[in-house]
Amino acid sequence: MLSRQIAPKLRGYETPFYLYDIGLLRQTLESVVYESNKYGYKVHYAIKANYDDHLLGIIRQYGLGIDCASGNELRKAVEAGFDPKGIVYAGVGKRDKELRYAIEQGIMAINCESIQELELLDRLSAEAGKVTDIALRINPDIDPKTNHCIDTGQADSKFGISYEEVLANADEIKALKNVNIIGIHLHIGSQIRELHVFENMCNKVNVIVENLEKLGFSFRFVDVGGGLGVNYDVPENEPIPNFASLFSIVHNHLAVGDKEVHFEFGRSIVAECGELITTVLFNKTTATGRKLVIVDASMTELIRPALYGSYHNIENITAKDDEVRTKYTVVGTACESTDVFDENVTLRKTQRGDLLSIKSAGAYGMSMASRYNLHDLPGAVYSDEIK
Would you put residue 46 in left (φ > 0), alpha (ψ -120 to 50) or beta? Predict the structure, then answer.
């Protein structure tokens, strides 16, 4: 990863901070655009993964749309210069004021996730004197074979409207006058590495679209979500996710006629370009003999290990190559016992003042940071600005 190559230059920055490899980000964007263009697919960036202004400016250059999960994300996308006609807005609990803002902006589609939301959106659109383009977010009841904390498409999930409920209320939905149903949206989860799961998704989508069209629905597009995983274990082996295989699977198994096919990627676009750089504060050995490395980052900068039990590869980027390797537990400064980055990591001999890189942290790192314990939010360093 980049940090190891430029470690001496990083000494001048106050830690902890996020280091972004802009070259890798551009290569990733070039890959997703090239591979999606083979099939005419449309790609949206899931802004919840990382809403850093510098990164958004680069992502916009590649013509991606935006997928939003809150009113403030929608506002951020608009203010960052993304075309509203390329913005979709999902989320199970949209506030009235957020829906009014989305109606005002005339975005591509609001993805509705309940019958009540459909009815509310119809009423708010009537009050605004508009007809709003929407998509039905259908829960497809698929096991995505991922961490249960980040699956979104099983029957008991809070996300989406059950297929059966749409069928039962089809006449009432079609009777709404101030919403224009132009699409169908599904999303089964995140960090999916078993790509055969997407075959199952396509087969279900085919049935859902066919049956809803028989009931009189008409769709311009099908949004099959995102979820493509990245290699957290050895990121150097796969710095750019396998977009080609995913798009090929969808091309070979999705049968929805001439409808536009849309994807929304977050993690797979920005995860690998980001590293959390942190300084070793202290070494300590517990009464049981466990060797602790205490760093100045914590769960307030990167909560994923504490929240999901997620793994991030960690490297001592300033230790000499010939240093003896030792097993450590890397912990942060937050006043929580779960503030642990890795309980059993092998590092070059690590001591006070060393810099560690916590890799693959570009997604759901800074965007989930908090000020718990009144910590400062971490800064950002971009490779294209380092001298």
Answer: beta
Query: Which residues are CB-contacts of 220 (< 8 A; sequence separation ≥ 6)?
Result: 182, 183, 259, 260
- CA angle, corner 123, sides to 118 and 125, nearest 5? 95
Collapsed DSSP state (helix, strand, coil) of residue 274: strand
CA atoms of 38 and 284, how far apart (whole Å): 54
| Distant-in-sequence, close-in-space partners of 148: CB < 8 Å, separation ≥ 6 | none
Distance between terminal CA atoms of the chain?
A: 18
pTM over 0.85: yes
Report H helices in 87-139.
96-105, 115-127
Do residues 278 and 295 touch, judged by C-beta distance below 8 A?
yes
Per-residue confidence in pLDDT tens, the chain, 387 aa: 899 999 999 999 999 999 999 999 999 999 999 999 999 999 999 999 999 999 999 999 999 999 999 999 999 999 999 999 999 999 999 999 999 999 999 999 999 999 999 999 999 999 999 999 999 999 876 444 444 433 344 555 666 788 888 888 899 999 999 999 999 998 777 788 788 888 888 988 998 999 899 999 999 999 999 889 999 999 999 999 999 999 999 999 999 999 999 999 999 999 999 999 999 999 999 999 999 999 999 999 999 999 989 999 999 999 988 889 999 999 999 999 999 999 999 999 999 999 999 999 999 999 999 999 999 999 999 999 997
| Alpha-helix runs per DSSP H in the chain | 2-5, 7-10, 22-37, 53-61, 71-79, 96-105, 115-127, 163-168, 170-175, 196-214, 243-253, 267-270, 304-308
Q: Whose CA is closest to 56, among 76, 42, 38?
A: 76
- Taking residue 70's Cβ as centre, other Cβ atoms within 10 Å add up to 17
